[in-house]
Fold this protein.
Amino acid sequence: MRRRTSLVPVILALVTSVAQGGTPAAPAPQVASSIADFERLLHKLDEEQRGVEGELGRIDPQLETVRRRILARGRAYYRHVHAGLLPVGEGFDALVDHAARVERVRRALERDMAEESGLMKRRVELSDRLLRLRAERAPLELQREAMTRARRALEAEDERRAAFARAFETSSRPDHVAIYGADMGPRDADARLGFEAQKGRLLFPVAGRAEVERSHRHGVTGLDLLAQPGAAVRSVAAGRVVFADRYDTYGLTVIIDHGDRYYSVYANLGGTELRAADPVGAGARVGTAPITGGSREAVYFEIRRGTEPVDPGPWLGL
């Protein structure tokens, strides 16, 4: 029982972290040991419950057999004692034999009744034990379910971290560029250039008016773009989506590979319909600015070369 009690704070900490949208810390070695103890405890309860249920299942047939014997011997005893079966005129020896038979039937009947009483008592004990086992298992099942959810959340967060890191590991020049609408002249021509050749001429990431502030909230140089709630967020250049998911403090994030190891990062989005491997054209919709009770909230924007962030201002002509 001490092991099960020591596990509860661990599970509660994991579940609380996941429920609050935080990033659960990786379990320490002693936590893993507690989880193993927890699984062993559940397995032990499962085995005990199966044993109790099995014994309960065997008691009823035994009771049925004993009660049949009680009924048969009770009838025999009644006939011997009350139905006029006493030997008459057969002498003393016959009377003694008759009395001995009656006594044997009586003792056998008493043994059967004692066995029935013992089986009934054992059935009550087993039923009570089964109720207690089920009562013990119920919170443990809930804890195991919570632990499973927490473990899956940890695994999903690890996968998101790995995917975020992998997004900056490889890059290639796009094979083609999607152009939307009619030919707009120089801007469309820019989209056909390499990303580096478009420095200072990239499309602005937010459609419409936005207030721009330099940001270091993620420990790197980026821009906070304070836009109207729900405003369209667009790709600054053509490329391919390499990450589209929630990530740590970045929130809902889309990363676009523009080739030659250049990437643009759009974070704290209100929504997106893009998926990894989707191609995007210059100016294509990446997502929307967040909506928080009608107030404005900043979209976060980065440009990276490989894993290294670069100042996005000059790239946007700011």
